């Protein structure tokens, strides 16, 4: 009788462990899927952040180059105006000194 009871308890424990083992496997798979989803979302967010930072940096560089170009153009215009004015004055001086 003891053997039958012991064998029955061992069989019940083995079935219980098998059921727990299957449930543990399912929970492990679910946890793995959740980790994979979190990793995917984090990677996607990181890519978006890098894209946004790159866009901001390129826009800033473009604006800086535009300002530098405008400054050079204005400086060139002022130099041309000054040269033109100097030529006019030189011509007037030549005319007046005749």
Structure write-up:
- The chain is mainly α and 98 residues long.
- It has one domain.
- It has one helix at residues 2-96.
- The longest helix has 95 residues, at 2-96.
- The model has no long low-confidence stretch (mean pLDDT 84).
Question: Which keywords apply here?
Answer:
rod-shaped, mainly alpha, 1 helix, 98 residues
The chain-level mean pLDDT equals 84
Sheet with the most strands?
A: none
Supply the number of structural domains: 1
Specify the structural class: mainly alpha
Estimate the strand proportion: under 5%
Instruction: Please state the CA-atom Rg, rounded to the nearest Å.
Output: 42 Å
Element string (H = helix, E = strand) = H
Fraction of helical residues: over 70%
Shape: rod-shaped
Low-confidence spans: pLDDT under 50, at least 5 residues?
A: none
List how many beta strands DSSP finds: 0
Distance between the termini: 144 Å
Helix run count: 1
Reconstruct the topology from this structure.
Layout: H1 2-96
In short:
By secondary structure, the protein is mostly helical.
């Amino acid at each position: 009788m003891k053997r039958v009871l012991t064998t029955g308890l061992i069989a019940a424990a083995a079935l219980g462990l098998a059921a727990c083992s299957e449930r543990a496997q399912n929970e492990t798979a679910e946890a793995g899927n959740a980790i994979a989803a979190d990793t995917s979302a984090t990677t996607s967010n990181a890519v978006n952040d890098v894209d946004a930072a790159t866009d901001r940096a390129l826009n800033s560089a473009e604006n800086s180059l535009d300002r530098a170009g405008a400054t050079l153009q204005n400086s060139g215009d002022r130099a041309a105006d000054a040269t033109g004015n100097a030529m006019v004055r030189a011509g007037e001086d030549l005319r007046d000194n005749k």
